Fold these 2 entries.
Entry 1:
Amino acid sequence: AGVNAQGARGLRFKPVAPNTADQVTIPEGHEQNVVIRWGDPIVKGAPGFNPDNQTAAAQAGQFGYNNDFLSLLPLGGDYERQQLLVANHEYTDEQLMFKAYDPANPTREQVEIAWAAHGLSVVAVQEDHRSGKLTAISRHRLNRRLTATSEFRLTGPAAGTDLVKTSVDAAGTKVLGTLNNCAGGTTPWGTTLHGEENFNQYFGNAGQVTDPTQAARLKRYGVTAGATERKWERFDKRFDVAQEPNESHRHGWVVELDPYDVNSVPRKRTALGRFKHEAAQPRLTEDGRPVVYMGDDERFDYFYKFVSSKQMKKGDSRAAKEHNLTLLDEGTLYVAKLTGDTPAAEIDGTGKRPTDGEFDGSGVWIKLLTSSPSGNVSHVEGMTAEEVSVFTRLAGDKVGATKMDRPEDVEPSPRTGRVYIALTNNTDRGKPGKEGATEANPRNLNKHGQILELAENFDDPAGDGFAWRLFLVAGDPNDPATYFAGFPKDKVSPISCPDNVAFDPHGNLWISTDGNQLGSHDGLFGVATAGERRGELKQFLTVPRGAETCGPIIQDKRVLVAVQHPGEIDGASVEKPQSVWPDGPGKIVRPSVVSVWRKDGKNIGV
Ligand code: FEO
Ligand code: CA
Ligand code: CA
Ligand code: CA
């Protein structure tokens, strides 16, 4: 109520009201289609989806489970009206995938299906002539699946070191699989970046490690002490830390994929550090060097950037491509330290606005590691370069980086260069023994999260200092602690737990949520970041029961979202589903990608 279809250019739609409908609810005058579902065959030879007779071999050629990050890349020339969709498959929900699933005793086939349902998908999509509809093209020559058992290569300072060698990979360079790919990014040189996030959950028996240094490292990364939830360690010893102590060091990286080359081996870029990588979003310096912003999604963990020492080469030549595939192996990794400008006594943990009117201040980027083929340099006392690379969290601890409220996705504005960081929530802040509110993280027991706006000094992304302020303090607008960049709060949509962020062609920020604490479903929102309507947040869609909203992409003609883990409610199973999306009653619930467009054929939000 109070919000109309006027709005900033790009955001002129009637907002969707908060709701708990088991569907994707979109604004009036819009239409939608399901672009691709879990299990749809994409690779040549893959069979159609049959949930009652699923096999690992079938799954390895089908779209994976729990789609999160999405990227759309152009397919030019003869392929007009086609784009290449790249998707992350973060994790599996076995109870919602298998009938009569026994979590204490998974079968080998179930485990191998789960391995094949993790990873990445590349699938060409066909645009509709008249609308924003997209249709997956099965068996396209660029379609590809990468799973928990595909080959990946380690590059950068940790590659080939003792910390990443295993009994089957004495060279320490060849890793099988990518796990828990959450959000990601798209590079200006035509590759995609994928954050390996909660990799710790797949590795068990860390409690059996007796060496105190190693035990402390495993603990800092939350590697499972006993049996893991999925019991993979029973089926492959590399998931058993007691038997293969370094395998977990080979996960928790940023993966770079060249989706245009079906034969390319994706790289794990160790110069960018190892932590629970939510996302990795690059921008270029004025002289063409990529800078990648990255969050570590854990309560009280850090925010990072990597500044390449090499300039990107333009064009599609083979030489340019080969050069650009080395950009993320050479450069410097930094961690952020933020200082507020309001007296600490005023930050009382309630989110009450400070007397200077803003949660804001300055910050410094602290150098951790410089990577180069001529030698890697640690900037952290008492740690070698490879230790900083593999145990980056410990390096951040040593240099006193700022403990944030779960840094999720990040996106630099292509127009202003300002960087927007989603801090999703931190219900532990201010609890006994835990750090209390700070100006950048101003609420104790923070349920709803905030979005921080970071402006590099002199707009130089390679610099070592920045200014920051909170752009959005999420929650019910009637809650006095909330803040929408100063926009009148009776004219905005409620929002809780921001997770993924993206920009539209007009320079508006779009935010998807995960874990809404306001009693309604998660969804997607758009907000102006500049002009008179800065802070006018409007909800564009909501997702079905139990789902989070991921991977938003806003193009002129369409809004694309990944509906992740629909029906994921405690106690739900295939037999007792808590959602019937997308195919209705009696059909298995399937994580899927959805496209939304305007019925009148006009561009989104204009
Ligand atoms: Fe996978 Fe941080 O969300
Ligand atoms: Ca202030
Ligand atoms: Ca996320
Ligand atoms: Ca999340």
Entry 2:
Amino acid sequence: KEENPVLFVIFGGSGDLAHRKLYPALFQLFQKGQLDQHFAVIGTARRPWTHEYFRETVQSNLHEGTAEQQAAFAAHFYYQSHDVQDAAHYVILKKLIDTLDQKYQLQGNRIFYMAMAPALFGTIAQYLRSEDLLSHDGFSRLIIEKPFGHDYASAKELNDAIVSTFDRDQVFRIDHYLGKEMVQALPYLRFANQMINASWNHEYIDNVQITLAESLGVEERGGYYETAGALRDMVQNHIMQVIAMLTFPEPETLCDQTIEAAREQVFTHLHQLSEDEVKAKFVRGQYGPSADGQQIGYRQEEKINPQSNVETFVAGELELDLPQWQGVPFYVRTGKRLLEKKTRIDIVFKKATSNLFGGESLAAPVLTIEVEPESGFIFSINGKQVGTGTQAVLHSLKYQLTDADQQLVPDAYERLLLEVVRGHQSNFVQWQDMAGAWHFVDKIRQAWEECDCPDFPNYTSGSMGPKAADDLLAKTGRHWIYQG
Ligand code: NAD
């Protein structure tokens, strides 16, 4: 339990992300003593709120702790009405920052969180420097949220605007999948077990399957989703980061630079698809109403164009041009309104060639990593059929986090915010990674724009997506291990 003195300035402090995710995550850190006496939070947005009203809104989003703990926490919160495009407002903000720095003895440490539209990130970054809001005696760090651009060109423009003000090691690009317990557990699984590490390659692995299924539809975020779609919203960032955690070469040490360099290897070796490969290897879908008519289709949702061709589902096959992974397909799948919320990874090992056991083809062993809602591993391996038979059958070895373990798991935002406070970069997205992922996704988008869109809607709400996603694997004799 060690306290790190720090001031948070949240741009977009009245917004949904700040209230639903950031303030509860900071409260967790407060309850654990990682934030204690020496911290303060300034929320800024255009509305003319008072500090008191702001504190009430913060408290009303805390669902744990006693009223006293909540009030003690909220007392560290201050509100500053602020238009990010107005230079004069930064002068006022600086005064409040300096006052709070003194009052809470924050040693000049500052974290600026961009919890608002990315179009304003560059403007804010530039004013922070020109109006002298960056620290002279402590650290200044910047946290950025997705969506980081909508293609490579816009992401680069955004990045250029930020890195002209902040150094590389001051910028923390959040991908909350990197803060999930079982995603962080992947390097342990790989590198702390020699037998797994030794078989983690094309000689032993037949294919890898990654499923990020959501049961919810687009909800109230239709306006944003119409400009994004599943490819940009889930594949470019979360799925790519999970692939990187599964495949980066073993680093010599666990320091930020070596892990970043190892992850960069993956992104620079993503096999970039040709137009023909996109047609053969990527499919898209859009949800229609549920079979019982209880749930409406995407085109009937609020703020959605009734003829929209935006995809709410993507499945595809990608490959890495790295010797270790030569020829191993990575099948990925994500979508809204699928059967259930589920994030899991299935590592499908090659079948044994032995015909000792009844002469029948043996099943493929599978190592499943359950990310959420359950968290754990399931290892399905061949063993003896119990009794007098001579067949080999699959047995499951299962490890699941208990309820008591789950209590120890920090929320992804809590974990990542603490890493920013400590200045650890290895679980954040580097620009090179993002650039590689955008190039990959841009190729798919361009190819899709060139060809006719499938007849949407093409999957029923509550199913596991369009049939084309199953066909993708079936044509090589494979199938999705997770069927829902
Ligand atoms: P929101 O619309 O709820 O909040 C936006 C905030 O920005 C508000 O506080 C608003 O007052 C402020 N703002 C807008 N223009 C301003 C200006 N010119 N000057 C000062 N303040 C201004 O949005 P949100 O859902 O909180 O999302 C914020 C960012 O985080 C977006 O880029 C979003 O895509 C991203 N994000 C949100 C979530 C989520 O769960 N909400 C998840 C991931 C990423």
